[in-house]
Amino acid sequence: MSLRTSLKNLIRRDPAASLRERAAGMSGILTSQTRRAVVAGSVAAAVPLPALAAPIATAAAQPHPDAELLALAERWLRARTAQDEAMEAWGVAHRQVYAVIKTCPPELFAPRDERLCFGAGWRFPTLLGVSLRHVALDWGTPGVHTEQAWTGKALRIAIARAVPLLGRGGLTPGRIRRWKALLPIADAFDARVEAVEAETGRRHLEEARRVAEDAFRDLNREIGRHVATTPEGMAALVRVIARYPWKDTGSAWPNLLRSAANVASIDLADLDHEYDSINASRA
After folding, report:
1. Predicted confidence band at 30 (pLDDT cuts at 50, 70, 90)?
2. What is the pTM of this model?
């Protein structure tokens, strides 16, 4: 409300008021208006003007020169851990399955002439298109050796394809009779192997291991394309290379890695030179 309006209202309320009463009223109005002005001025002074209050714009933070390498190294370390864990889980299941596989009935072992004639096994092109089960015996002893054992699936393939591929005469009839006689034994043993595989989840764990290995291998290739330009980037590469088995193969590699670790302020004890004892024995 303006001062003029306040005075008009005072006169309008009591036209018959004396001059002294009107003067007293005007004094009160002036005092009130003065207080409001002071308060308003104080508030205005407390609120900074936008132009003055705005902070001076600072330059945008620049990304770290080795930001991509640092992020990639972290991914590499996580992928390495994931691969190790997947390998360990698969290894536990594999050992349980192999405890059954090594009890394979000897009659299922393919004789030498069958292995030579058919090249049975995943290592060679096969005439009959079959793969035999590889069974390592006497593992950890000087007499360790591997046998190739027939499975029910392989026997059925061989029986079905023997005549078209090998002919009706010669050794074919005898081989077919032998394979048919082995079918009940092979099926029973296959059931034992499949039961322990299902119980341990070996096949699922094997697939998970392969996925982890593929992811880790891809990161290996990707990180190998980067060159560090800062001590932080060099430290990231040192932590990665410290996990490589070839880092302890001798020549200048161990010293080069130690030199990079010193420049990057990494404790040499963290390099994990697991092959130093082997190198020392060859010196």
Report:
1. very low
2. 0.62
